Amino acid sequence: MRTSIRRGLRTALAGSLLFGGLTTVSLAAVNALTEGTASGAVTASDWTTFDHDSLRSGVDPSGNSFSPATPAWNSPTLDGQLYGQPLVFAGMVFAATENDTVYALAADSGGVLWSHHLGTPVEAADLPCGDISPTVGITSTPVIDASRSEIFVVADEASSPIAAHHLIGLDLYTGAVLLDEVIDPPDTDPAAQLQRASLALDDGSVIAGFGGNSGDCSDYHGLVVSAPEDGSTPTTYVVADLPGDSQGAVWMGGAAPTVDAQGNVWVATGNSAFQSSSDTYDESDGVLEISPAMKLVQAFAPKAWYADNASDLDLGSTAPALLPNGLAFEVGKSQTAYVLAQSHLGGLNGQVALTNSFCFADGGSADLDGTLFVPCSGGIEAVTPTASPPVALWSTSSGAHGSPIVAGGLVWSIGNGNLYALNPANGTEIQHFAIGPSVSSFPSPSAADGLILAPSSTQIHAFEGPAGLPPPTTSVLIPATGATLSGTATLDASASTATSVEFRLFGGIYGYAAPVLCTATLTLYGWLCSWNSTTVPNGSYTLVSEASGSGGTAYSSGVSITVGNPPTTSVLVPSNGATLSGSTTLDASASNATSVEFRLFGGIYGFSGPVICTATLTYYGWVCSWNTTTVPNGSYNLLSQASGPGGTATSSGVSMTVKN
Fold first, then answer.
1. Do residues 234 and 348 both lie within one domain?
2. pLDDT of residue 22
3. Are residues 617 and 535 in the same domain?
4. With CB atoms 3.0 to 4.6 Å apart as the test, which of 267, 347, 452, 456 could cross-link to 436 if both were Cys?
5. What is the pLDDT of residue 40?
6. What is the pLDDT of residues 217-234, one digit of tens each?
7. Which pLDDT score, from 0 to 100, does residue 91 have?
8. Is residue 334 within 8 Å of 354, Cβ to Cβ?
């Protein structure tokens, strides 16, 4: 990569026109040289939320091939158990642990870029029940708001009397905490609530679903909390909120709420304390559409919802899948699969179609153009829902059963300590990789930046396709094109899939040689470095950022800048205290100057400071010859004055005597 661009630079330099040692360099020429220098068949991409997008398609749209896949890297052992799906943004992989620690890993190596331990997790022994041990910290998949460069997590932290759930926003690049807000609604028992469902974003708010700990102990309610990213007061929808009622978990096997184009939030709910046909329906064991204001829009529930409740047969063990044909699909612990109309869920027994004994499922389904890959406990099953009773197209016997995704034309799922790649047409196994056991009953991989990322209990495992990893991308953020720089200037660039960023300068005395001005450091604001612009002559230049990573090297488009530092000057000859007579040579040094004059103060001139001669730039400095007989004998102060595009500067005075 570097060889090819350097060869291009030398060719361009050889054919350029030289004037006084300066090379004429155009912005178009620089962009032509740097354009396309990051080669490769792999497309950089992101995965910022559970199952990729707000509709939970679970599909990597990059088109990167994983046929075949090979191991790329294993992360270090992290400090706690992993229950969430890995996220990817700007060349970084994010994971959060039950020890309340968030990690940013380099996508090209798995090395830790930063980690932040947010607080003390809750001891499992202090909770009324549950199956997460030894501590409960961050259980759900985080969510990234790329527009804010912020990742949000919900951390269960030890707090009087037992626990509190903190919504924490961290800077993506440094891990600095930008938000820390307790989001437990009033009159709830945080120790009885588990924030298991993955987080979602909805127009400036983080959506978090709550249920109870495994065992349905103590007094909890299904909650959907909408917490504004700016830290203002959250709003909450409460399930099973009738007198004498409780439970109705929003957990969905760890999947995330779906957010539709109107910003409405779709969830499925678990069993409640209402278990009799005489009980009023309480939004448990159903599919709910909730407005951004956390008001119920519509609901569906099976005809015998109360019987499901009595037998702990959650419909809400999976997330509702919203299909492009206007239908929705839901299946849970009862094994009955329901097809619903998105526009009219129909209330009790309002389904469009159903199939009994479809499968027992936990988690989120992947949606490839209307065909769903469903996380059935006996193995992934495929179904294309229509208005007819749903029928499985195939059921894999591979052992894959965790929430699946689709990447590179294959279905990827975790089961029995293995990552599986399945043929989407028939479910047959194409490849599998041993990654080790998972503490989660329904772990899920993700796919971005040319990688398949699979969590085991305490590690992330990465696999790449035949084309390897994507090249980095970069662009100059500061300065803006057309800017004039002087003194010490801050340079800023964005970069993805990069391990280093440098800034290079074209034009002026450098032509196409493009020396490195400074090497940037990754900070809260991007890749920053400080450059002393006085180290180059004033003039017009083109600034380029260069990003390097394991996928290669990439160059930004050029940014046109002008260096306009004020001149500096000092008198070299005569020396201080000299006595002059006759015709004498005056000499001054000057930088960033286009002209230099000598002025005389004192004697008959006082402070008027007339110009006594205009200097010429020579090998020895700015030199002129002055006839001292044109002024009366006496004591004077001699100053040099330099002028240039950056302004005018005057030297310190030199005391001298004229004695003719």
1. yes
2. 42
3. no
4. 456
5. 47
6. 888 999 999 999 999 999
7. 85
8. no
Tokens of 517: 């001005």
Residues 311 and 363 in one domain: yes
Q: Where a domain ends, among 412, 439, 464?
A: 464
Structural contact between residues 256 and 50, judged by C-beta atoms closer than 8 angstroms: yes
Look up the pTM and report it: 0.79
How many residues appear in the chain?
660
In angstroms, the CA 200 to CA 53 distance is 9
Which is it for strands 539-549 and 552-555: parallel, antiparallel or unpaired?
antiparallel
Provide the strand spans (E) within 388-515. 394-395, 405-407, 410-415, 418-422, 429-434, 446-448, 451-455, 460-464, 473-478, 483-485, 488-496, 500-506
CATH of the domain at 200: 2.130.10.10
378: which 2 tokens?
């006996």
Token pair 């450091």: residue: 521
Domain presence at residue 236? yes
Write the pLDDT tens digit of every residue in 416-436: 999 999 999 999 999 999 999
Q: Domain with 497 in it: what CATH number?
A: 2.60.40.10
Only one residue has tokens 């400080």, namely 530
Judged by phi (left if over 0) then psi (alpha if -120 to 50, else beta), residue 581 lies in: beta
Token couple for 107: 């996508």
The boundaries of the domain holding residue 130 are 70-464
d(Cα 153, Cα 66) in Å, to the nearest integer?
A: 30
Same domain, 318 and 353: yes
Asked whether residue 262 carries a pLDDT value surpassing 70, the answer given is: yes
